[in-house]
Design brief:
Length: 397
């Protein structure tokens, strides 16, 4: 059962937002303020990055009992723990005493309990308060009332999602039919063999919009166009909090790499179509999943400012690939590192261009239908609808 809770609208001109929601072919991009304005950014952090399910981390980062990790989340951070029974928990990363972070954001630890670094209040891995110096037998202090604030958490194919609002409903309902596209890749058994962290001087939506179209590929991605025809593929109808589609590999190309060859082995669950295509999925609002015949690339976006986004990019491979003699993940990492940097450069130029007071929202080409889907989701969110309760319409083609 999905909640219908409505949040306050974003501090934007409603008429400009409505322009983005006109039918595909007539619509305009989001208002300029959506990319440059601090107040809009703060609204997004609260209502888009803290208003429902958010990709918080990977299961392998909290794999064993006692593992804990803090990740940026909404307007604050979230503490993930794996308890003695193997159950994953998510808590607001704030001590119940006077609010100190329990673990620095971005840090990992291994311990039997959670100890606040400030005055050493101690919690179990399940969030129960176990010890608070000087509070024992203090009248009116009931230990049971001072456990950590727990948030709904779900693992999905090795990815950890947390719902800060507690109102988004089951993740599976929010993801709609994404499961059928993603399941064959068995991401839960893949192993991360490379990571690049980027700091891009662009708004997170500019990065997402760029990800969802290949209209720009002939201009800026010569390496990509060599292995994948930029006008190939189609976008999915995406009921749920995601947008995406697929593209073909050229004949003779096994995967996305500089020469089209793979150093690994194909993922065992893929059919003939999966072996000849690359699927590009954006799970709202912070996860980009690129599913290749032999590896999965993930971008996790962490918005730092209206014009700045941290991007954690990882490459995951099947255990069979890692076990292969002479395997080197560089073929995938190098290709996408070049392509990522081409993209960030373009996005940063868009950000600078949109700083001009003369920038007005432009129209979308027919090749930008997935951008339209994403913009629709954002614009409806700006109007006060929670993204996690939307049914996203199929774009007219
Ligand atoms: S703030 Fe955590 S023990 Fe005081
Ligand atoms: Fe690109």
């Amino acid at each position: 059962m999905i909640s219908q809770t409505v949040c306050p609208p974003a501090p934007l001109d409603p008429a400009a937002v409505a322009q983005a929601l006109r039918p595909f072919g007539e619509s305009r991009m989001l208002p300029r303020a959506a990319y440059v304005d601090q107040a809009v950014f703060e609204w997004e952090k609260q209502h888009m990055f803290g208003g429902g399910w958010l990709f918080a981390g990977r299961s392998d980062q909290v794999a064993s009992p006692g593992d804990m990790r803090a990740e940026p989340f909404g307007t604050g951070s979230v503490l993930l723990t794996r308890d003695e029974g193997g159950v994953l928990h998510a808590f607001a990363n704030t001590c119940r005493h006077r609010g100190h972070e329990l673990l620095p954001c971005g840090a990992s630890a291994q311990h039997k309990v959670i100890i606040c670094p400030y005055h050493a209040w101690t919690y179990g891995l399940n969030g129960d308060l176990r010890a608070a110096a000087g509070f024992k037998n203090r009248p009116g202090f009931a230990t049971a009332e001072w456990g950590l604030h727990e948030l709904p958490v779900t693992e999905w194919h090795g990815l950890v999602f947390v719902d800060e609002s507690g109102q988004a409903g089951p993740l599976a309902d929010c993801l709609g039919n994404l499961e059928e596209h993603v399941a064959p890749y068995e991401m839960e058994r893949l192993v991360v063999a490379g990571q690049h962290d980027y700091d891009s001087a662009a708004n997170w939506k500019i990065l997402t919009e760029n990800y969802h179209e290949c209209y720009h590929c002939p201009s800026i991605h010569p390496q990509l166009c060599k292995v994948s025809p930029p006008r190939s593929g189609k976008n999915y109808a995406a009921p749920g909090i995601w947008v995406g589609g697929w593209m073909d590999l050229r004949d003779g190309m096994a995967t996305m790499s500089l020469d089209g060859s793979s150093s690994g082995v194909p993922l065992r669950g893929l059919d003939a179509t999966g072996l000849r295509t690359v699927i590009y999925i954006g799970v709202f609002p912070n996860l980009l999943l690129s599913l290749h015949p032999d590896y999965v690339m993930m971008h996790k976006m962490i918005p730092l400012a209206p014009n700045r986004t941290k991007i954690e990019c990882t490459w995951s491979f099947a255990p069979e690939s890692l076990a292969k003699q002479g395997f080197d993940p560089g073929y995938a990492i190098e290709f996408w590192d070049i392509t990522n940097r081409q993209d960030w450069q373009a996005c940063e130029s868009v950000q600078r261009g949109l700083s001009s007071p003369h920038a007005v929202p432009g129209p979308l080409s027919l090749e930008e239908d997935a951008v339209y889907q994403f913009v629709t989701m954002v614009a409806r969110g700006y109007q006060g609808e929670r993204a996690w309760t939307m049914g996203i319409p199929e774009p007219a083609r």
